[in-house]
Fold methylmalonate-semialdehyde dehydrogenase (CoA acylating).
Amino acid sequence: MTLIGHFVEGKRFVGTSERRGDVFDPATGRRTGEVALASTADVAVAVEAAARAARSWRDASLAKRSAVLFAFRELVHARRDRLAEVITAEHGKVLADAAGEVQRGLEVIEYACGIPSALRGAFSENVSTEVDSYTLRQPLGVVAVVSPFNFPVMVPLWFVPIAVACGNAVVLKPSEKDPSAALLLAEWFAEAGLPDGVLNVVNGDKEAVDALLDHPEVRAVSFVGSTPIARYVYQRGTAAGKRVQALGGAKNHMVVLPDADLDLAADAAVNAGFGSAGERCMAISALVAVEPIGDALVARIAERMAGLRTGDGRRGCDMGPLVTAAHAARVRSYVEAGVAAGAVAVVDGRDVQPDGDPGGFWLGPTLFDRVTPEMSIYTDEIFGPVLSVLRVGSYAEALELVNANPYGNGTAIFTNDGGAARRYQHEVEVGMVGINVPIPVPMAYHSFGGWKSSLFGDLHAHGEDGVRFFTRAKVVTSRWLDPRHGGVNLGFPTQS
Ligand code: NAD
C-alpha cells in the first residue's frame, strides 16, 4: 500500500501524525493508497519552512521568478499525460476530461509567466512641484491554498503559480481524496528551479485546515470547496485577521428560450450536465425550459443520453464513476428522493451497465423532468450526474427562479435573440454567465468567481484579482531635497 505523505522544504515528509485516510481507484473500488493526515504540528513544520523561504523569495527578481514559471510550464506541458493518468486513477474522471483540466491549469501558469507585466505599478511625476508618487504591489508572505477533490490539478493551479509569481511562499492542502497530483506539481516546481520551501504540500483534513487558519504566519487563505465549509473557513480565517477568498458550491441553471436552436441546447445540456459525472462546480444541474419547448428539448436530451458510455476512464468512455462509495450512495439517494417527490425519471442512472469493474462507484446519467423548486433534487447541490428540467412560462419566470436560488456561481442562456441575452446578462445575479456557452469558466487572464453563497470574500480567483489577492499595495510619495524646499510650515500639505 503506497503511503502518500507531504512535501516540505523540497523533500517528501511523512510527519508525526499517525492518522491516515484511504485513497481509492473509483473505477474499481479498490483501495490504492493511504494518505497521511497532517497534525497541527506537521502543519507548523510546513508553515515555518514557508516563512523562512518567503524572506528571500520576496527579493527574487521578476526575471528569476518568471524564468522558474516558464520552466515549470514546460515540465507540466511535457508531462501532461502523466498528470492526467494520476487524476483519473484517484478521481475517476475520464482521461480526456483530465487532460482538459491540466490544459486549463497550464493556462494559469502561462498567465503567471507574464508576472512582470501584471505586477507593474503606476508612476505620477510632479504630483506637486518636484514631488513624484508611485504604487508598488508587494507579496504577503506565507499564503495557504486549500483545494477540493473535483479538480486536483486545475484548482491548485488557479492560485499557486500566481501566489509564487507575486513573491509569496505557499502551503497547499489538497483534497485527501485525490492527493497525489499536488505532490507531483510541487516536485516539478522544485525541478523548475523554485527554491526549497517556497511551495509546500501538506495532506490532511479538518485538523490541517484549522491549523492553517489559526497559524499567525499564514497571511491569506484561498479556499475552494462546498458552501458550508467555505463559509466556515471565511469566518474563522477573517476572525484571525487573514485575507480570505472562499469559493463555495453551486447550483447552475441553463435557461433555454423558445427561439433557441434546440439541438445545440441539447448538446450543451448533456455535455455540461454529465461531463466529469456532474462533479464540476460549473456543471449544469438545473435546466429551465421556457415553454412551449419542454417536450421537444427533453426528447432531444434523452436521445443523446442513450449514446453515452459510462465506465472506466481509461477505456475511452464518456463518463466515469463518482469519487467515493459514500458520494455515489449520496447521489443515488437524491435520485430516490426525486422519484419519491414525483419528478419524472426520463433516464434513470441506477440502471446503468458500466464498462468497468463491478466494484466501481457507478451511477449513470440521470434526467428528471417536471422538477419543481421545492424538491430536494432542485434545492440541494447534488454534485453528480443528475440533470433536472424545470418548466416555466416566460423569461421573467426563469429569471425569478435563477435569482431566488441562494447560489450564484455560473449560469447560461440559450437563445438567438441578442436583446434577450443582453437583458439576462444584465439582470441575472450570478458571477459567471454563458451566452450559448454551457460552462462559462473564464480564461486565466479573466477572474473566476461566483456571487452569493458561491463565494465568500471580495476577490475572485486568477487573472487580475489573483494578483491583487496575493499582494499588498503600497503608495510612495517622494521628493529629492532641494534647498528651495526648506522652511517650517504647519499647514496641511497641498499641491503647489
Ligand atoms: P469539501 O468542502 O468537502 O472539501 C474542500 C476542502 O476542505 C478539502 O481540502 C477538505 O479536506 C477540506 N475540508 C473538508 N471538511 C472540512 C472541515 N470540516 N473543516 C475544514 N476543512 C474541511 O468539498 P469537496 O467535496 O472536496 O469538493 C466539492 C465541492 O467544491 C462542491 O461543493 C463544489 O461545488 C465545490 N467547488 C467549488 C468551486 C468553485 O469555484 N466555486 C470549484 C470546485 C469545487
User: Anything to note?
Assistant: The chain has a mean pLDDT of 97.
